[in-house]
C-alpha cells in the first residue's frame, strides 16, 4: 500500500535498477490489491481510547469482517492505484491466505517514474506468482535478453534483505501477508469511523463504513510505525461490506512523500481455489545472482 518499497529504487545504478524495480513493482501490486499489513490476520489491534472510542455496534461489525476474511482464505481481486509521481498501475488476479500466502497477479503499469523504467525494457505489464518460499515475476523479451533469454525472475523472500535502504523488509512483509485486512485494522485503530449507509456495489448490497486516520493518534503502535516510516500523516479509508461480512470494495487515499496516493480494490469469489506452480527452472533467473552480476558490472574499475 505504501511507497516505502519503491522509494529506494530511485538512487540505484542503471544496471541494478530494473531488477530491483521489478521486485518493488510486484510487491506494490500485492500491497495495493490486498492492502496487507506487517502482521497477520490473528494479530490483535489496539482499541482506541477516550473520545476516539468506537461505538460497540461499529466495532463488532468490523471485527466480524476480520474474522470472516480470515475464514474465507482466498478471493479474486482487481485494483487500480496511484502513488504520486512514482507509479500508477492496475492489478487483477487471485490471492490466498489460508496457511501460506499464494497468488497469481497480472500487473499493468499505466504511468509514473517506475513504469517508464519498465517500458524502456518493453515490460509495460507483468505476471507474478506468489509461493510460500519465493515469488516470481515474468518480464518481456527485451528484459529477458539481458538474462540469457530467461523470462522469469525468482525472488526468495529472505534475499529481499539485499535491497537498498531497508526497503527489502517492507517488500517481504507485503508479499507474505495477502489477506485484505489492513483497511479494517486502520478503521478499528483510528476510532474515527462511521456507518455511511447502504449501497449496491457490483450487484451486491453492502454497508459502507468510512473513516479518517490520523497517524499520530493511532492506538495501534505497529500500524502507526508502518505508516510513519512510509511518510503518511493522514489517510481516509472507505470499505463496503456484504451480508457475509466480507469486503466487496475498499478505497484508500492519503499523502505520501512522493505525492498523492489513492487505491481502489474490488473483491469477489471468496474461497476460490488458488493453485500456483513455479515456472520452469530453465526459464528462471535468480534475483540474488542478477543483483550480484549487475553490481559487479557497474562497479568502477579498480
Automatic annotation (TrEMBL):
Source taxon at top rank: Bacteria
Designated name of the protein: LppX_LprAFG lipoprotein
Gene3D superfamilies named in the record: 2.50.20.20
Organism listed in the record: Streptomyces sp. SID12501
Record's keyword annotation contains Cell inner membrane: no
Species classification: Bacteria, Bacillati, Actinomycetota, Actinomycetes, Kitasatosporales
Keywords (A to Z) from UniProt: Signal
Signal peptide: 1-33
InterPro entries per record: LolA/LolB/LppX
Amino acid at each position: 500500500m505504501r511507497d516505502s518499497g519503491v522509494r529506494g529504487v530511485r538512487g540505484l545504478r542503471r544496471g541494478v535498477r530494473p531488477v530491483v524495480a521489478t521486485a518493488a513493482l510486484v510487491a506494490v501490486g500485492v500491497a495495493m490489491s490486498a492492502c496487507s499489513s506487517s502482521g497477520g490476520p490473528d494479530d490483535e489491534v489496539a482499541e482506541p481510547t477516550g473520545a476516539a472510542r468506537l461505538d460497540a455496534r461499529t466495532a463488532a461489525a468490523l471485527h466480524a469482517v476480520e474474522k470472516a476474511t480470515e475464514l474465507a482464505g482466498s478471493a479474486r481481486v482487481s485494483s487500480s492505484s496511484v502513488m504520486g509521481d512514482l507509479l500508477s498501475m492496475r492489478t487483477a488476479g487471485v490471492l490466498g491466505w489460508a496457511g501460506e500466502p499464494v497468488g497469481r497477479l497480472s500487473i499493468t503499469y499505466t504511468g509514473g517514474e517506475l513504469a517508464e523504467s519498465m517500458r524502456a525494457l518493453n515490460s509495460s505489464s507483468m505476471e507474478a506468482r506468489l509461493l510460500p518460499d519465493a515469488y516470481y515475476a515474468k518480464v518481456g523479451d527485451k528484459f529477458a535478453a539481458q538474462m540469457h533469454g530467461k523470462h522469469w525472475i525468482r525472488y526468495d523472500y529472505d534475499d529481499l534483505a539485499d535491497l537498498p535502504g531497508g526497503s527489502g523488509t517492507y517488500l517481504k512483509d507485503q508479499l507474505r501477508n495477502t489477506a485484505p485486512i489492513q483497511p479494517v485494522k486502520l478503521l478499528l485503530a483510528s476510532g474515527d469511523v462511521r456507518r455511511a449507509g447502504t449501497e449496491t456495489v457490483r450487484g451486491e448490497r453492502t454497508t459502507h463504513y468510512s473513516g479518517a486516520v490520523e497517524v499520530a493518534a493511532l492506538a495501534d503502535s505497529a500500524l502507526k510505525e508502518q505508516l510513519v516510516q512510509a511518510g503518511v500523516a493522514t489517510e481516509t479509508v472507505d470499505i463496503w461490506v456484504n451480508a457475509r461480512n466480507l469486503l466487496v470494495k475498499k478505497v484508500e487515499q492519503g499523502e505520501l512523500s512522493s505525492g498523492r496516493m489513492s487505491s481502489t480494490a474490488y473483491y469477489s469469489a471468496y474461497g476460490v481455489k488458488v493453485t500456483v506452480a513455479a515456472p520452469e527452472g530453465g526459464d528462471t533467473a535468480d534475483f540474488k545472482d542478477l543483483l550480484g552480476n549487475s553490481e559487479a558490472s557497474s562497479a568502477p574499475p579498480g
